[in-house]
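dude i think i finally got it to work??
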Amino acid sequence: MGSSVETLEFQAESRQLLQMVIHSIYSNKDIFLRELISNASDALDKLRLESLTESELEVDISDLHIVLDIDKDTRTLTIRDNGIGMSRDDVVELIGTIAKSGTASLLDKLKDAKDAAAAQSLIGQFGVGFYSAFMVADKVTLRTRRAGNSSGTWWESDGEGTYQIQEVDDLPVGTSVTLNLKPADSEDGLADYLAEWKIRQIVKQYSDFIRWPIRMATERTDADGAPSHTVDTLNSMKALWARPRSEVSDAEYTEFYKQISHDWLAPAETIHMRAEGTFEYEALLFIPAQAPFDLFSRETRPGVQLYVKRVFIMDDCDALMPNYLRFVKGVVDAHDLSLNISREILQHDRQIRGVRRRLVKKVLGALKAMQAGDAERYTELWAQFGRALKEGLIEDGDSIDVLLELVSAASTHDPEKPTTLREYVGRMKDGQDAIYYLTGETRAMVENSPHMEAFAAKEYEVLILTDPVDEIWTDQIEAFDGHRLQSVAKGQVDLDERADDDQEPGAEKAKREQDYAALLPWLTTTLSEHIKQVRLSSRLTTSAACIVGDAHDMTPNLEKMYRAMGQQMPTIKRTLELNPTHPLIAALRSAHETKPDDPALAEIAELVYGSALLAEGGELLDPARFTRLLTDHLPHPL
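look at this
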């Protein structure tokens, strides 16, 4: 026997909140089962803990479990556990009032929320996931008895403003929640939650790694057509990340990686970590061996899944991994987050930002260890993900030093083998204070660029950077290990020139500038539509001319990239440099001295500029005019 049934009203604010939960908060109705299973799992955890800390509590913990029971005749779904259970006071406090405090404040915030996602993130802070059951049920019945109590509690509500409660006898320790399900309705997003396959699907998606078995009785037909009943365990309970690394084999790691990544190759690196203290979590991360085909697609998101106490929360959690590490796959299981925490809250959560920093440090540390211990394997991995990693030099100011150490690039030192910046610095010439580089669309274009001539002649090593992202990060990173990064296509170049014969250093240069004192200003005026200055070059040995930018000018390639993205870019005029030892330039100087008003000289000047522009991969404004001038001034064949 038990006490009489009491009918009580929800608090006014709680009633409003309940209606919002039922009708507008959750866009994915499947999660009602995730919420109820998670509550059951928590109850099992608490019972196990209390059984260890309270010796007088006489309970059986030999088979802690969760049971799902489908009854198609009565259209009910029951979620039952043999966990800690609740007293009558627990039920009134935790369920009857929905939220113990702050309900009015929460309602105000919900009314101001702009969309369902924002509302869901708010309601998740108040632990009312139990009421998601009313999205799919017309009536919810709860039966519970707390461990150590002699009597239990019966609670029931249709979610419309009142609930009934009664003390009852003869209940087992634990809690059962029975849902009288609404009919399936595709328009309202209500699936057939009496279908065995649907229940299995939800459990597999959200609760597969719950540590306790989730069981369900199913009906089978034997070979003779006779029905038989079996009890299946729906979840794997194999949360690898929760086990010590020493207890997990490489084969298990590989199998789990393939399951979450849909990759057929084994991962290149596995990172298994556990953090304890004020914010506890486990993480199991994988660095793939091969880049996915959509690594640089706009739709690609970071590949880390978020769990809370083994309950799946969301895929592609960008709050846990920066975009430049989007190729990393894995799982982070936090112990102290709400099940309904949203992306927006995660982005601003101080503890989550701390987790993110530690995860990034672990991933970059694993890459650094690979670079030091297995250079060949690292080179292969950099070929797959280097372009993405270099995005971190733009996005992640906290990790720049580590990322610069990881950078691997082609160079003129060895055509077959890339180099690190650290290795480059180790080979620098005496007195060299800059790390020289040149960006371009292809290696061939960079190697054949006129800007490289003096560096090749004097055997200065130059990094060859051909990824689009190289145009950006080299413009933002000033130095590595105290050595500035300098583009060989920007600014003035002085490679320690020395005069020939008995002339003093600089004497030959001064003489050349005097010889060209009239030609340079005339060319600057003649080509003023295209350039801002003409000067003599110290970087050219065989080409007639090249175009260079100032130290902080945007490169032509970067300018082209921005324009391709639809951005309006201001016209940047650069400097034309002439090789005073080239026959064409010498002839142009002589012609200008003897007949400065000859119209043909201006056309030759256009050809010199256009040739320099084409040599660096630029685009002519008027290709037809350039072609005509070229054919007009070419010597006629014999």
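The longest strand covers residues 137-145.
im so relieved honestly
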